[in-house]
Amino acid sequence: MDTSLYAAVDLGSNSFHMVIARLTDGRMQIIDRIKERVRLAEGMDEGRNMSPQAMARGLDCLALFAERLTNIKPDQIRIAGTYTLRRASNARDFVREAAKVLNHPIEIISGQEEARLIYQGVAHTQHLEGRVLVVDIGGGSTELIIGEGFSPLALTSRKMGCVSFTQQFFPAGRLGPSQFEAAVLAARHQLDPVREQYRTLGWQSCLGSSGSIRTVHDVLVQEGLTEGGITREALARLSGRILGHKKVSALRFDGLPSERQEVFVAAVAILTALFDALPIERMDYSDGALREGLLYEFEERLQHHDIRERTALALASHYRIDGRQAARVEASALALFDLLAPDWQLEADPYRAILRWAAQLHEIGLAINYGGIHRHSAYILANTDLPGFNQDDQSLLAALVRFHRKSLKLGDLPPLPNHDQQAVLRCIRILRLAVAANHRRLDGLLPPWQARARGEGLTLTLPAPWCEENRLLMQNLEKEQAYCAEQGWRLDFQLS
């Protein structure tokens, strides 16, 4: 197994992409790219179910990808699902089968996180000067980002994509002025909520990063409609030529590959709306996109610049969390984790890291009120955009915080398909003990943890004089003992 190789896979609504890189002198060097058009969003019914045919195409593609991933370490692979897998009612069925094919979990990322990663992909592969607007038209959604250097300033994901718009406005390949104008108007409507914000921020240059934008760019150049870059005038001239046909299948343009023909008109309509509404004067093409963003996240984490850590710190600051109490709970939780991880077979990645962030943020719900703080904290963490966290890890973070105190109503535990349920419950127990033991909110109060586990039984060894001096705190720990007993978990205290 080659430990220098890293892989990122983007499960898009129209195409699946895989990029392989080698880590050389601390930098990622891309050595292979694989792309397959699967049209995952095609044929989605009114109940938002992906069709069996689309799911089969996706799984067949992933079987090919799996061959290429066999010699790469599992913790050096990231596989992300985007708009269609966020939206589809039967997404969980597909994700479960895909994970079996790839022998690796699938991350479902939010629209905001997708936009952030797209920007990172562009920023790491393109020399950027000044403020830049990045646009990515996917199969189901379009991401818009304004940033400077490696820092995004505005992120949004709009529900308009070349596959979904093709199905909605150009069914069966029908084409006409009224249909094209309806698609443009629908795209402009999607842009209305962010138009003023983006106009106010402004930008010096604009880059498009998707296959759809590349196709439009290539057609404009090869048809002689532009000398380079996409402009509003060139788009208008191209639209005129498109509307000279009544069927999408009749389009014949230099630079238009057959696999892009079906969704080409929808991409032109979305671009037309973008150029008119924002407005955009010129857009150039960039090779960087989501998969490169996923890849370069590895590089950031290797350099200990984990965006998730910055996210947790920003939340703690925004909600004015008591940092000293958070640090006490964090120290206790991590000390317990390190003692119990061998007995409980808890993997440091991801459980130790997410337990740490849960300890840091468990009191975030105080911003609402103390009553029901555990529920308020979980709600905030589950419903806030958390840069760097995929949906499954965000759900795990919220779940740990949700159960950090009071009775364990485990029926409320959300599905966490990419996490081992036993490991999740054990992390909950660790966090609960850390919170209970720090109830008095004092530094230096606790003796060093001594703990061992046998199955689900847990024994804490505490100094007898300390227990006598801290009866109120021991009552708190005994309450936790009773909560555990309700779940059939033994929690024993042994005096030393």
UniProtKB/TrEMBL annotation:
<dbReference type="InterPro" id="IPR022371">
    <property type="entry name" value="Exopolyphosphatase"/>
</dbReference>
<comment type="subunit">
    <text>Homodimer.</text>
</comment>
<dbReference type="Pfam" id="PF02541">
    <property type="entry name" value="Ppx-GppA"/>
</dbReference>
<comment type="similarity">
    <text>Belongs to the GppA/Ppx family.</text>
</comment>
<dbReference type="InterPro" id="IPR050273">
    <property type="entry name" value="GppA/Ppx_hydrolase"/>
</dbReference>
<protein>
    <recommendedName>
        <fullName>Exopolyphosphatase</fullName>
        <ecNumber>3.6.1.11</ecNumber>
    </recommendedName>
</protein>
<keyword id="KW-0472">Membrane</keyword>
<dbReference type="InterPro" id="IPR048950">
    <property type="entry name" value="Ppx_GppA_C"/>
</dbReference>
<feature type="domain" description="Ppx/GppA phosphatase C-terminal">
    <location>
        <begin position="307"/>
        <end position="481"/>
    </location>
</feature>
<dbReference type="InterPro" id="IPR003695">
    <property type="entry name" value="Ppx_GppA_N"/>
</dbReference>
<dbReference type="InterPro" id="IPR043129">
    <property type="entry name" value="ATPase_NBD"/>
</dbReference>
<dbReference type="Pfam" id="PF21447">
    <property type="entry name" value="Ppx-GppA_III"/>
</dbReference>
<keyword id="KW-0378">Hydrolase</keyword>
<dbReference type="GO" id="GO:0004309">
    <property type="term" value="F:exopolyphosphatase activity"/>
</dbReference>
<dbReference type="InterPro" id="IPR030673">
    <property type="entry name" value="PyroPPase_GppA_Ppx"/>
</dbReference>
<keyword id="KW-1003">Cell membrane</keyword>
<feature type="domain" description="Ppx/GppA phosphatase N-terminal">
    <location>
        <begin position="19"/>
        <end position="300"/>
    </location>
</feature>
